[in-house]
Give the backbone structure.
Amino acid sequence: MKTKLISLVFIGGMIFSANAKEAAIKKHLFEQKSSQIEISGQVIGQDDGMPIAGATIYAKGNTKIATITDETGKFKLNVPENETQIIITYMGYGTLEFKLDKTQDLTISLKPAENVLDQVLVTALGVKKSSKSVAYAVTELKGTEFTKAKETNIANALVGKIAGVNVSSTATGPNGSSRVVIRGNGSLNGNNQPMYVVNDLPIDNTQLNLPGIGNGPGSTRINVDRGDGTSVINADDIKTITVLKGGTAAALYGANAANGVILIQTKRGAAQKGIGVDYNTSFTFETPSIIPDWQYEYGSGANGKKPTTQAEAIADGRWSWGAKIDGTDVVQFDGVSRPYVAQKNNIKNFYNTGTTFINSLALSGGTEKATGRLSFSNMENKGVVPNSDFNRKSINIASNVNLTNWLKFDVVAQYNLEKSNNRVTVSDAEANPNWGTYMIANTVDIRNLAPGYDANGVEEAWNPVAVATNPYFVVNKIKNNDTKNRFIGMLNVKLNFTPELFLQGRIGQDFTDYEFFGYIPKTTLNNPVGYAQGSRMKISNLNSEAILNYTKKNIYDNFSLNALIGVNSRTNLRDETRVEGSNFVLDDFYALSNLSTLTYSYPYGKTKTNSVYGAADFDYKNIVFLNITGRQDWFSTLSKENNTVFYPSIGTSIILSDIITMPDWVSFTKIRSSWAQVGGATPDPYALNQSYSMIQGGHNGQQLQGPTSTRVSNPTLSPLTSTTFEIGTDLGFFRNRLNLDFAYYNRATTNDIVETTISNASGSSSALLNLGKMRNKGVEVLLSGKIINSENFSWDASFNGSYNENTVEALTDQLNSITMATSVNGYVTITSDVGRPYSIIKGYKPRVDANGNTVYNVSGGSATIAQGPLQELGQGVHPWAAGISNEFKYKSVSFSFLIDGKFGGSLYSGTDLYGTRMGLTKLTLEGRENGLPIKGVDTNGNPVDMVIAPENLRTYYDGLRNISSTFVYDASFIKLRQVILGYDLPIQSIKGLSKLQGASISFVARNLFILYKKTPNVDPESVFSAGNAQGVEQFGVPKTRSFGLSLNVKF
């Protein structure tokens, strides 16, 4: 402990080691000679119009006459009267020679450098670094990547763009959650998603409700995904998104950054004349991208026969086990006779064409002393599921005030109001409209089920199983709505003591107030008394921080130093009230107060983490770089004996091309290596000791107290540890027209905090333990190039690819497997087993005897395949991923597209399982005409050689539900993810538009086509849970393709 603290003190001591003379305030960067005229102006980025601080300006005739821009991009410089040009340079931008046609109020635009190997990157704590000095893999995306083809959740826009970043958009609708995992899953059942930091403030990414994948608790009734924390980010406000992948990159953030960090910087105002206006609008249509390829040879009915009465039609409402489709009239569920014809458009006829309309307006401007930006955004989404919609309104404010040369204030604030109506229930639940839509018999027109209820509002029966609710009744009568108010704000104060030394303090809060209410009316066949649930949740994250930073060029013999020390405190609060009940007393009055039975619960948690940290970056001649960091966290969630941990990191990079003479075709060579430890504590603040609360209802009128949780408390829990080693190289070829970034990483998580099930005989259901070891190791490649770069035409291309090998190396001596989730009726189980990858899909294959013969359960004239032992069927997480992007520009026209894919993972399809049971899949065609021949043995070992008659086939195919391997598919895919065709309007040549600064219009499309897949009838990305258990789909909201127009106008 003493050694760790001494290391931090040593870092702090270095900050004050420079002598007082060198720390004196200097007006300019270099020595200047007396001159006759003064020039002044501002340097901005050509790509975003934002001021560039720290740019160097010098006279072309005398490089010693120089200065640097201040934090607003402003500068003043005295030059000889006969000087005609100045030169402006800044890392990450091209060098510009600027002709002096005037001397005052100059506005100089710098173009981003084509050499992507020498950029300025925003890293941990908002510190800007040269990409040459960074010893780990960092990827930065500009805001323009997200503003044209928008996603309702910004996390989904990262798909296929960054090596090592696995993004899964859930099949729960446009307002659902997203799952982002960087370099593999590090925890067995804890949080595996990265930390999100917006404008240097960590924000909350709580997933408010994760739908269960089975038909047990958490997956019935109103089983909806209530969204996550990243949905508040408006794409039009984003300046950059930077992904810090490795432990070294994120070590300064401590426990919350164990899974990496996604840094989001929003746009700011700039000093300028007048008010700048930036208006963006986009309108897109969404349609289901996959329609099941059912069989349409045999129609509704059973035993190879059509229904002959209304009762038979209802009994066969989900079955397509009838006769050959012949077009003759046949009675249906409502007693009406209609032609016995294939209904191939049931899916299209039920779902709507969804729409998303986004408008954003930003105002910006300022002076040398103060700048600001104010933006408004409104998003209106109508989903493909009828009567479902989502609205998000947001206001963003960013203000920068320079009170003096040494005192600066920054204020950033954001308010969001989100409202959703009828989030879609998924999985095997009575309120899931997708169930009946997919499973209705193939000769029944689904539109005849509308409106889903009779004159008294009672659900109209269409099949014999009440839980398979009429889909039109679901969308018209089963309702839910929620409202989320969210405020994110931060105040940053910076004191510049000298040009080399500053103190920065910031305090910020992320506060969410969320309300949800949903009900199932008493006119539902499966729930004739009715049901409702409601919740009110308040989430608060308070972050305060102070940083002392010292920077010194040439501190000693060509060595330069940047060092900082800081303190941080984070307080997280979650306070919730949950209510659910049944039996509505009054008809058509849907409120919690109208329920005769109510159950209350009050989840509450408050945690705090205090930290100190330090960092030192050394460089020698801008060639050799060394980065050292250390952070000490103290957790309120653990005992005093175990509540603290130290996170060190060290990294180095060397620019070999500045040391060794390379061939002419090699422009740049950098090698890098880093090592880091990060970790974390359990997020549950009450896991150490058993807590108690009053039992609702008591016993015989007497109040009783009972345990709050059925989980065994564990006072000896200690923080987990994640250790990462990384090596890599950055290479530039042909004057940096072709660039390669390669990385290898090895990450081991030990002492994980895992909740495991225990015997109910103990009086508890689970225990929280420190156990196990999990390893992720892999490679990442980014290859980018400017293939053609002529005056009127350019072609940029990039390829990113990654492979991650995940292995659960150990659990405990008594435990070799952890169950993460179980699907409907236990057909498959998601587990993590020692020696195998994370999130394994386990199920059943056919039983075979010692001679390899299939074993059958024979009964009468039919048989089913006997179930074999539980075994591994695939892994739910893809180890391979890749993305290819191309952008072509010809004068004012641009065209770009993105293709991405994932490979090696598997998917259990509940949709295909039920489609087979109902006689819908093409698999069930075999045997319909002349019977199905089977050979093998029965359960007693007797030979079986028989033909299952067509009228007995349903029994055979229905029995395949116990042979889950039948429905586990290779989930590899390749998609045409995005296409953008843009045109920059020639505003200077169009009358009436000459006052505009710019205008562009684009055709945009997302998720256009699946170029390759092996999952029949479903999209391979149709998983509906953003939780750790991956690899299962069942009746989620259809994945959609979108297309539309986007318009941007600046003036």
User: Anything to note?
Assistant: Confidence is low (pLDDT under 50) at residues 1-34, 215-219. The domain at 31-110 is CATH 2.60.40.1120 (Immunoglobulin-like).
